[in-house]
Design brief:
The protein is α/β, with parallel strands linked by helices. The protein has one domain: Aldolase class I (TIM Barrel, Alpha-Beta Barrel). Helix content is about 40%, strand content about 20%. The chain has 11 helices and 9 strands. The chain has an 8-stranded parallel β-barrel, surrounded by 4 helices. Helix 5 links the parallel strand 3 and strand 4. The longest helix is centred in the middle third of the chain and has 17 residues.
Amino acid sequence: MHDRRRAILEVRTRRPHAIAEAAAQRKRRPALLGGDHQLFIIAADHAARGALRAGERPMALADRADLLDRLSLALSRPGVDGVLGTADIIEDLLLLGVLDAKVVIGSMNRGGLAGTVFEIDDRFTGYDAAAIARMGFEGGKMLFRIDPDDPATVRTMAACARAVNELAAHGLMAMIEPFISHRADGRVRNDLTPDAVIRSIAVASGLGVTSAYTWLKVPVVADMERVLAASTLPALLLGGEVSADQDAVFTQWHKALQIPSVHGLVVGRTLLFPPDDDVAGAVDAAVGLMRA
């Protein structure tokens, strides 16, 4: 990766216009979904929110060259459809030439930095719909946390609704990741009980003037069939935190993938930083669950 990192730095220093050129020359997929109507997306937008931990490694995402190596390897594995990331990471991957025929989802709101007092006021500091369309990407993703005790929630809610509208105007996927959240001991924690996830899905499904292009990114929790009965929108399962018991996580994913409204996985740190550090093996195992 050392030589490739040097090449990226050279472009960013001397030829920044090459990033837009790489986006324009990127080979596009003919359709969002493949023949099996599933999507397998690698998530890589955590660092922009200051969330650098992966499992027991508190600064796992702090080494950009290492992260790009892991992302490039994951994207090269059969059955991986694309990536979700912020502009800095997407642009690095464009310059590495690993995004041809891949689905690219731009991460839109990263302003709710992890561990801050303003975390719920999740401002849109990343991609906007116009930039996503201009770069020829397939959609945009937004995090929507609902804290009943934090009035900043409504600002994030309104911003997400605008983003849904703007993406729909371009005919692009709006991927919403909703949670009911509460602050405890100074930290924002997501409520992963089935009833809380159902409520978050119900609210997220109603954002915007149309839901025609809206997809949900949802956690795998108990009673998933009842949870996903809350909406007719297509859903993707999020990977969550790195777990020492990866087999148990895969079993949960496999069961949830059988629900008709589920059309794939959006997984990041769980596969990029598996306990045994075998990225290819973890990705292949997860792909096998979904493509079976």
